[in-house]
Automatic annotation (TrEMBL):
One Pfam family hit: PET
Organism per entry: Neomonachus schauinslandi (Hawaiian monk seal)
Alphabetized UniProt keyword annotations: Cytoplasm, LIM domain, Metal-binding, Nucleus, Phosphoprotein, Repeat, Repressor, Transcription, Transcription regulation, Zinc
Subcellular location: Cytoplasm; Nucleus
Protein name (database record): LIM and cysteine-rich domains protein 1
PROSITE patterns: LIM_DOMAIN_1, LIM_DOMAIN_2, PET
GO molecular function: transcription corepressor activity; zinc ion binding
Originating gene: LMCD1
A GO CC term assigned to this protein in UniProt: cytoplasm
Signal peptide boundaries: none
Known role: Transcriptional cofactor that restricts GATA6 function by inhibiting DNA-binding, resulting in repression of GATA6 transcriptional activation of downstream target genes. Represses GATA6-mediated trans activation of lung- and cardiac tissue-specific promoters. Inhibits DNA-binding by GATA4 and GATA1 to the cTNC promoter. Plays a critical role in the development of cardiac hypertrophy via activation of calcineurin/nuclear factor of activated T-cells signaling pathway.
Length: 248
């Protein structure tokens, strides 16, 4: 019992140490800006309509099947959750009863870490910044990357937007972690009108932006713009009349 209590105490200390490595304004402590930041990031990085066809608006039957296959594939090939451990300890099995308790006031369970310190004679390097990772300081591992790579907690970010990966949820692609939003967008276009992924092959594209045909409308007067003149300014789609009125 004494050993179990000691191990639990060490686990809690490591979990708290991990939390301290995160910028204070992003620590998910209940009632703080960090908690609100986490919720915003969850909705932005992992939109529910990127995961559940029933939460999309107006998918046709054949598009539902395409989306279901899309989600099934990314869950199988790319989706993962980062693991927190000391350098050299990633991927090692956790002994039963060594899960650390939840630090008081946090919204999520503190990441689990192994209690032992890695090989002090080995130099561990962060995959992102290439800086040293001290053997006694927690790092993040990705099973899809292999346990020979590790990241400082603040360096486990989306390769596209450089934002921290909320709850360590990542999508592995091209040798780097992505957030869910940008991973999905790297495979299929996202509608600038409704923000959902487009699963139809019939859509409107203007430069690097895309729209469902039904959402290709003026953001000022809402008239359909397919086959008509339009202007795209700073990501905003307008008819010539509304564009002129905004400039005046």
């Amino acid at each position: 019992m004494a050993k179990v209590a000691k191990d639990l105490k060490q686990g809690v200390q490591k979990g708290l140490q991990y939390m301290e490595l995160i910028p204070k304004e992003k620590q998910p402590v209940t009632g703080t800006e960090g908690a609100y930041y986490r919720r915003r990031q969850l909705m932005h990085q992992l939109p529910i309509y990127d995961q559940d066809p029933s939460r999309c608006r107006g998918l046709l039957e054949n598009e539902v099947k395409v989306m279901e296959e899309f989600v099934k594939q990314y869950k199988s090939e790319a989706l993962g959750v980062g693991e927190v451990a000391l350098p050299g300890q990633g991927g090692l099995p956790k002994e039963e009863g060594k899960q650390p308790e939840k630090p008081e006031g946090t919204e999520t369970t503190a990441p689990t870490t192994n209690g032992s310190i890695g090989d002090l004679s080995k130099e561990y390097v962060c995959e992102f910044c290439k800086g040293a990772a001290p053997a006694d300081s927690p790092v993040v591992y990705s099973d899809r990357a292999g346990y020979g790579k590790q990241w400082h907690p603040t360096c486990f970010v989306c390769v596209k937007c450089s934002e921290p990966l909320v709850d360590l949820i990542y999508f592995w692609k091209d040798g780097a972690p992505w957030c869910g939003r940008h991973y999905c967008e790297s495979l299929r276009p996202r509608c600038s009108g409704c923000d959902e992924i487009i699963f139809s092959e019939d859509y409107q594209r203007v430069e690097d932006l895309a729209w469902h045909r039904k959402h290709f409308v003026c953001e000022g007067c809402e008239q359909q713009l397919s086959g008509r003149a339009y202007i795209v300014t700073k990501g905003q789609l307008l008819c010539p009349t509304c564009s002129k009125s905004k400039r005046s």
